[in-house]
Amino acid sequence: MPVRNLGLLYASSQKNLGIAGMTIVVAARAFLERCGDHVPAPFHYRRQAEQHSKVNTPPLFAISVAGNVCRWLIARGGLEAAGQRSAKKAALLYRLIEQHGFYSSPIDPEFRSNVSVRFHLPDPELEAMFRADARRNGLNHLEGHPSVGGLRASLYNLVTLEAVETLAEFMTEFERVRG
To answer: Model-level pTM?
Structure first.
């Protein structure tokens, strides 16, 4: 993404860069000069820059984790390689979801995420069985968001292809037995 003409980048790390809730802000010097004094301290980016991001106590553990994740990503080819790994993991699950009609995704293929794969089974009872069987097999946190239901596989950077393959094998077997 070309960023030269942007005044501010505000990135929420969620769980792909470290601990959920941490944010990273990159601001152009010209943007910093326009910051008025009425802005609260955490968002007064000129003041933050002048004080080396120490206007408030920095979240040191979150920063350390993000630094470790960045080093891990760089050692594995950087962001481009991470994007390719994410696409490969997601494609594996989307192929399986679309294969026989047992699983379905409510998201138009054009807008599907490579990090958060949403899917449904034919009925809520099967979804409850799927979650219970998955937990018994060491596959946790597959619940969909409370507002939309269904199931969701989170494929963050640190989730390995092998872990996604394990989920895909479980899904294949679940469909064979219960489909």
So the answer is: 0.81
